[in-house]
Amino acid sequence: MQGVKLSYRVAGQGSMKVLFIHGALGSSMAWVFQLRMAEEEGFEALAPDLPGHGGSSDLQGEVDIAYLAGLMKSFLEVLGVEEAVVVGHSMGGAIAMTLAAEAPRRVKGLALANTGAKLGVLPEILEGLSRDYRRTVEEVIAPMSFAYTVDKALLEASIAEMMKVPPHVAYRNFKACNAFDFRDRLSEVKVPTLILVGSEDKLTPVKWAEYLHKHIAGSRLVVVEGAGHASMLEKPKEFNEALRSFLRSLEGSK
Question: What is the pTM of this model?
């Protein structure tokens, strides 16, 4: 698959296929609560590890969001999935938007979680990742990724997962995010779209979600109260309720 071996998790069964794309410091484990929902709701969830994450092989050199979107298109093709609902978190949301614009026949609907049309990255994060990876993850990125009320066990487990991402992969991803600007292409997104954001998100704030909502025709915006940047982990019940309602609205649609 474009010279890359991707590992992925599968959950549930059903005619509806849902592709879950994680963010810059994540893996397929980010979707643990949504994979459980797939078993209950009767759809098939596919959650790949992006290159250099989880069990997937790495890439040489730089990557951009367009490349990763092409990789996800190839992933669906290899699995024989003609059409899927695509759920993307943060960087995964950027990939999902690009996939919807570049391969509209493959995308039945979009759920964009904690993301934006332009993903500017704070200089202290980019510089820190290349100089002191652990400190930057523990003292800068992690505190900005969760609401102040986050369960400490979840915070510690999430930091441990972030630290599994090789520093060069994390830096490459954040550079790709920093270069991403889809504002002039949002009109190309013509599929039903759900936009989710945590009310306490400090990395991709509510105003970014509101911008997406304003410029993606017919989109629906859900603010997950009390959640930060990792809304699917912090408030899985509320996140899943919104996603469940969206998926049910797509059943039987062409």
Answer: 0.96
